[in-house]
Amino acid sequence: MLQIALNRRKHKLKLVGMNVLICHFRLPEPDTNSGDLRLVCILHELRKMGHRIYFIAGSGGDVACEVALKQWVDHLVIDNDPAMSPRDMIKRLMLIAPLHVAIMAPYSTFNRYDQTIRLISPQTVLILDTIDIIQLRLWRCGMVDGNADTLGEASVVAKSENDAIREADAVWVVSEVELNLLQGVGKPVSVVSNIHTDSECLPEFTSTSGIVFLGGYKHVPNVDAVLIFHHKILPILRSIMGQIDVTYAGSFPPPEIVALNAPESGINVTGFVEDHRSLLQKHRVAIAPLRYGAGIKGKVGEYMACGVPCVLTTIAAEGFSIKDGVHAEIADTAEMFAERIARLYNDANHWRQIQHAAADYVEAFMSPRAVRSSLECALRQAMFSFKLCHSLPYRIAMRMVRPWRKKWQGIVLHDLCVDKGAPLS
């Protein structure tokens, strides 16, 4: 009966006109990576819900990004003045308006501001937005490469990231995978996924050609994926299909990716593409040969939203509840990856079936409408839990059961990192 009563109260909790502080480690660059695109979409949805947005960016960036962000938020502070401490920034914001909620991403940003906000504004609900579980990505990278330094970095990050999870009033993740990792954490954990708008017009099979990879190359897993595809998978694919054009698109390609550019051989490295959707829809098959990573892969959501059927590794498909052969083709060996591309490339009926199933999936689970609902639920759950945990009856009850409560020990990664082995190795 108590649980029913609590649920009823939670649904009656109205969230209108809140002052929401968002702390991000930099100015968002939504044209260059999916994490920042997700953040900007969340900003838009929060504004549509009637909330006021106050934004602290951990570092500056492109002037155009700053101008764009000022159109989306009520007040912007860039944390690049050594003379101004986090305490000074939060105090200055508190003079403008009381803060009801603070959403901070990633863990390093949370750890920079959380104690200051607790001290100055104890009534503010602190939410850690993980974006992805960074320690998981680093563990997987270290296991794939056998790099002891990367594994050591993962251990350091794990301590700080787990500390942030413990200190937060609520935690946001991007998929059910991370939700399962945080079982037993003892606080609300909500899925707020990537947001993708579906294409108004899906491409036709006969109007497309070639293969495309899209990704920002500041993200190391994308560099690894392109090199693996180019050197291990593409030779097998061309032995099956003959000459086929491949485009490696995305911002900040490093020298080893730029060196692959050979238009005379059908290899094009484009660098940053202003209209990536038009580029994607010219291609018949999109690929994500990722060997490690974590969270929802934005490129996969964009492929599906644009109506470009894709071939993925299990790691690339992780976080999506998609089925192999229905929403995408999934393969974890170089030979199978090449075979799946060839099948998708040549079978028009199968291509169309996957195209429509993937577009329907995005509309159902990753559209602005779908994610707005999960965002509202996540905010309501965080606010209700905070109010409950600070109520006198709850504190008395927790004091009574404290000797028997099991403390959360942190995320256990080894099973996730080791059991599958590295795809495409």
Describe the secondary-structure layout:
Layout lengths: L1 H11 L6 E6 L9 H15 L3 E6 L5 H10 L2 E4 L7 H11 L4 E5 L1 H14 L4 E5 L4 H12 L2 H20 L2 E4 L2 H6 L7 E3 L19 E4 L5 H22 L4 E4 L5 H4 L8 E5 L4 H5 L4 E4 L9 H9 L3 E3 L1 H4 L11 E2 L3 H13 L1 H18 L2 H22 L2 H10 L12 H5 L7
Parallel strand pairs: 1-2, 1-4, 2-3, 4-5, 5-6, 6-7, 8-9, 8-11, 9-10, 11-12, 12-13
Helix pairs in contact: 4-5, 5-7, 6-7, 9-14, 12-15
Arithmetic mean of pLDDT: 87
**Largest sheet: number of strands, sense, barrel closure:** 7 strands, parallel
Number of domains: 2
Q: If classified by CATH, what would the architecture of the largest domain be? A: 3-Layer(aba) Sandwich
CATH domain topology of the largest domain: Rossmann fold
Q: Based on DSSP secondary structure assignment, what is the total number of beta strands?
A: 13
Residue fraction in strands: 5-15%
Describe this structure in words.
- The protein is of the alpha/beta class and 425 residues long.
- It folds into two domains: 15-195 and 368-418, Rossmann fold; 205-365, Glycogen Phosphorylase B (Rossmann fold, 3-Layer(aba) Sandwich), CATH 3.40.50.2000.
- The protein has helices spanning 2-12, 34-48, 63-72, 86-96, 107-120, 134-145, 148-167, 176-181, 220-241, 255-258, 276-280, 298-306, 314-317, 334-346, 348-365, 368-389, 392-401, 414-418, and strands at residues 19-24, 52-57, 75-78, 101-105, 125-129, 170-173, 189-191, 211-214, 246-249, 267-271, 285-288, 310-312, 329-330.
